[in-house]
Amino acid sequence: MTNKETIVEKARYYLSCEQEGKDIYSSESFLNWITVEDNKKIFEEEKAFRQMFSKIPKKDSIKLSQQVQKELKKERFLSKIKKVSTLAACFLIVGFVYILYFKDDYSQKIYSQNSIMQNILMPDDSKITLDVKTNIEVAYTKEKREVFLKYGKAIFEVSSNKERPFYVQSNDILIKVVGTKFEVNQKNDRVNIAVLDGIVDINYKDFKISELKKGDILEVYNNGEIKSLKKLPVEYMASWEKGKLIFDKTPLVDVLNEFQRYIDKKIELLVTKKDDFPITGEFEIDDFDKFTKLLPMIYPIKVQYIGNKKVVFRN
């Protein structure tokens, strides 16, 4: 069995599991497997085939099947050389039927566990990148495109379609766009939105509360109250996509919450002094140990490692 055949077999196995109702996106083995480019490509091709035939009415499916059989018989009779061009033609047919039958009606749950999932391609050519420990649900209809950010951080690069707006729902905050690129970071009591390109509308329930442009960063509470609105260079935004964490006078508690996403140890902050301990600097995602060594040089804070499971910060 060739490597491609092995990948196809594995892809069909995962698709069968999904068809049976299993949440494959919560499986660490699947998430590790799908991060390989060849695996992801074949998985999406196999899924496209399945969805195509599930959307075609039965009578049309029979006609298509009969036509394919006739074409195959004709092709075998003509020559083996034409097999390559026939395969290419089949892919064109599949692409056309894909767009016609299920591009407008699409739903998917996606969960990233311990690794970043980059450039997940949507049916409309929009792309989504998920940070670790992020959960989203995608729901496309003819009227609109929706993504529900359950928790975590994601970057959205949205293809323009004025007739079919793109929405991201995070808690009670609704983000509406037509075509742009932006990051959404859902926290416990608030949401951060950073616009890397284009313009987005921010709504709380049915009320528009802000309009953001390139370079804008908005922090808004779940009740619609704006905490802060500022501008930053685009290169500082969504730095986790490049494996970095950039802080600009960020309170220590928020810095530790960011690092917590990328380490297995539990972090506890036990300080009595009412101080935000703002942090400014750039760190690699795996620089947590370096950060804990530098922190006591800046602030009167002690760092204590308790075995391999906990790190305590106290003053």
Describe it:
The chain is an alpha+beta fold and 315 residues long. It folds into three domains: 3-102, no CATH class; 106-233, Jelly Rolls, CATH 2.60.120.1440; 243-314, 3-Layer(bab) Sandwich (Phage tail protein beta-alpha-beta fold), CATH 3.55.50.30. Helices cover 33% and strands 36% of the residues. The chain contains seven helices and 18 strands. It has helices at 3-19, 28-34, 37-55, 58-78, 83-102, 252-260, 288-298, and strands spanning 106-112, 117-121, 127-130, 134-140, 145-157, 166-170, 173-177, 181-186, 190-197, 199-204, 207-213, 216-221, 226-231, 244-250, 266-270, 279-284, 302-306, 310-314. A hairpin with a 2-residue loop joins strand 10 (199-204) and strand 11.
Keywords:
7 helices, 3-stranded mixed beta sheet, Jelly Rolls, Phage tail protein beta-alpha-beta fold, 36% strand, alpha+beta, 315 residues
